[in-house]
Amino acid sequence: PRMQTLNRISRARARNRQVSFAYNWDSSYSGSLPDGVVYFPMLWSAAPEHSNQWVANANAAIAKGSTHLLL
Asked: How would you classify residue 19: left for phi > 0, otherwise alpha for psi between -120 and 50, otherwise beta?
């Protein structure tokens, strides 16, 4: 599901240059994004499987240019 979402964003970006961010209902992603698209991490729930890595993943996204965090 994660890669499907990122692939859809890549296709949308190719058709419409107004796509400028991506998210995937998680706080991290793998792969690459098209130029000009920034990943916004999401804290989907307070459950440990979502929150244990939140700070590290949010900081990593910020270091890669993310300007927003989705809570």
From this structure: beta
